Amino acid sequence: MSAVKYTRPIDGHVHLRWLEHSIPFALFAFQDAATVGYKALVEQVNTDPPLISLDMIRARKAYIDLVKKQARAEDILHKSYIGMTDDEGQVKTALRAVIDNPDLIAGDKTFYVHSTANMGLLRNRIWVRNWAIKREMAYRKVSTSHLEDENTFDKSNPFNPKNPMTHSLYQNEKAELVQTERQIRLARDLEFEGIFVAHHVSSPDTIDFLYQEKDNMPFQIIIESTPHHILLNTDDYKIHGNRVKINPPLRSPESQKGVLERGLEGKIDIIGTDHAPHPLERKDSVNPSSGIPVIPIFPFLAQTLLKKGMSKGQLKKITFDTPNKIFFSGELEAEEVEVEYNPGLWDKYGYNPFSRRDGTLRLPQVRV
User: Fold this and answer.
1) Which of 28, 68, 115, 223 has its CA 20 to 30 A from that of 154?
2) Measuring CA to CA, which residue among 219, 226, 244, 197 is closest to residue 354?
3) How far apart (Å, rounded) are the C-alpha atoms in residues 296 and 345?
């Protein structure tokens, strides 16, 4: 594959890991980010320990500065989100930390369903209370969300690790749409004035709903999708099994095509990788973790979108301009890089979840 030119991207959605694994996933991420030309990244909150206080975020920042130096990636900027919990005092203190520390914290994050680290907020009264607190504090910052509704999951198709497809059947597309509709309307009714970021939107129906509601809401709506929901689908279970188990799950080929088409139509505002690696033994266990490595695919993704008709200006908008505006107040300067996709970056993770799409898949030789 030839090299591709693009503006150094800002990735608003990465999981760098901390004490939960002995593998240096944060180091790997910054090495990969440097190789593909990243300008900045924003870290998710569900580390061990979780990023739910200013003190923890400061400690994390000190650690990340050491990692960046070791990775020779000191020019890549780093922020994190701060997590929302059931505790009212924590929520108020965390939101104040966002307001007072824009150099460290890009916004708040709520999981409306359990995912890695089980930080889900599942009760309606907590949702209402947290939106109300944002109103009372005149909070005008970024609020990001993992949007799935546990009660809409298909209980007749529980996840069975022996049949990876059941993950997509259980955590169905409707569950994403139901929770998205609910939280958008709660934010409206409770007079939210900030920026509502829907993370890793995986369903064309959810994109259509959010896009339609943009003009109806008194707050800004940002639709984020991921490289895997743009490029991969349930056919990839046949190749990688639970190694491509993610939250929200891979969708049908038809839905994946729909997400890609909406990206090309300009209905996706930002691309965040949701880079979330796990040790192979966890992925291959009877209780496989959700999440895949993603950062190395960026040059391939950029070239694919350009070949399919996306303009360079639109690619810059969804990978730099918009994330720069909402996460860095528009303060970063655009820089162009020329990068060749390097499939060798996957080696340290033990597999390439995009091998069916990037042409590197090698099927076993069959002796006749």
Assistant:
1) 223
2) 244
3) 6
- Dihedral sign, Cα of residue 208, residue 329, residue 54, residue 9: positive
Give the number of domains in the chain.
Answer: 1
Q: Are 47 and 298 in contact (CB under 8 A)?
A: no
CA distance 358 to 361: 8
Give the per-residue pLDDT at 117.
79
Residue 74: CA count within 13 A, CB half-sphere: 6
Q: 328 lies in which domain range?
A: 4-358
Distance CA 245, CA 242 (A): 5
The answer to whether position 211 is within a domain reads yes
Q: Which helix (H) or strand (E) segment is 130 a member of?
A: helix 124-136
Contacts of 337 (CB under 8 A, 6+ apart): 5, 6, 7, 8, 37
Count CB atoms within 10 A of the CB of residue 356: 18
Please answer whether residues 194 and 138 qualify as being in contact, where contact means their C-beta atoms are separated by less than 8 angstroms.
Answer: no
pLDDT digits (tens, 9 = 90+) for 21-66: 999 999 999 999 999 999 999 999 999 999 999 999 999 999 999 9
Report the SS3 class of residue 46. Answer: coil
Is the distance from CB of 286 to CB of 162 less than 8 angstroms? no
> Can you give the pTM of this predicted structure?
0.97
* Separation CA 7–CA 328 (nearest Å): 16
Cα separation of 334 and 353, whole Å?
30
Cα–Cα dist 216/222, whole Å = 14
Residue 150 belongs to some domain of the structure: yes
- On whether residue 66 sits in a domain, the answer given is yes
